[in-house]
Amino acid sequence: NLLQPPNERPELPSGLYVLGLTGISGSGKSSVAQRLKNLGAYIIDSDHLGHRAYAPGGPAYQPVVEAFGTDILHKDGTINRKVLGSRVFGNKKQMKILTDIVWPVIAKLAREEMDVAVAKGKTLCVIDAAMLLEAGWQSMVHEVWTVVIPETEAVRRIVERDGLSEAAAQSRLQSQMSGQQLVEQSNVVLSTLWESHVTQSQVEKAWNLLQKRLPKAYQT
């Protein structure tokens, strides 16, 4: 159900309705994005945009190397994301230096992707971004959709998926907004806590309700 009214976004490309999809690490956000893609949405994956931004010659590459030094580079000149991550993780000042560089770059790439979606005749796109709200990207979307699960389940999934210790998984979650903080700023909330078919029926219901409230120009 719609928890609060959608946002007017006259500055976005006309004829394109944009959802922002977010959720804590381990929430199952990527699986929901895939389900929305199967229903016809154009997906803008912020992780993919991040890889493009960090790549040699990418818009964030030089500023990041200048800010953090050449010792964050692999021998082939690419940025070692693990070394960079260890430098900023748990250090708010360093993290802010990095996000001040990278978030505006990824936002610009996302806007370019919106233009690609319009050129392909798409009327609905989804920005899949774990840090959507932290980065202030809710200003780029008509609605925020959040995927929620209990923190204990998120920790279990992160440990299983990424091979981290429970302490490391909890530390990762503490660096993000809590599920409750995300929900407070959301238009639609989904959960992947149960079996796959339950998630699918939630996504389909949310999609069908979205189609009903969309202006005719946006309907897929």
Automatic annotation (TrEMBL):
GO terms for molecular function: ATP binding; dephospho-CoA kinase activity; pantetheine-phosphate adenylyltransferase activity. PROSITE patterns: DPCK. Keywords: ATP-binding, Nucleotide-binding. Pfam families: CoaE. InterPro entries: Depp_CoAkinase, P-loop_NTPase. GO terms for biological process: coenzyme A biosynthetic process. It comes from the Eukaryota. NCBIfam families: dephospho-CoA kinase. This is COASY synthase.
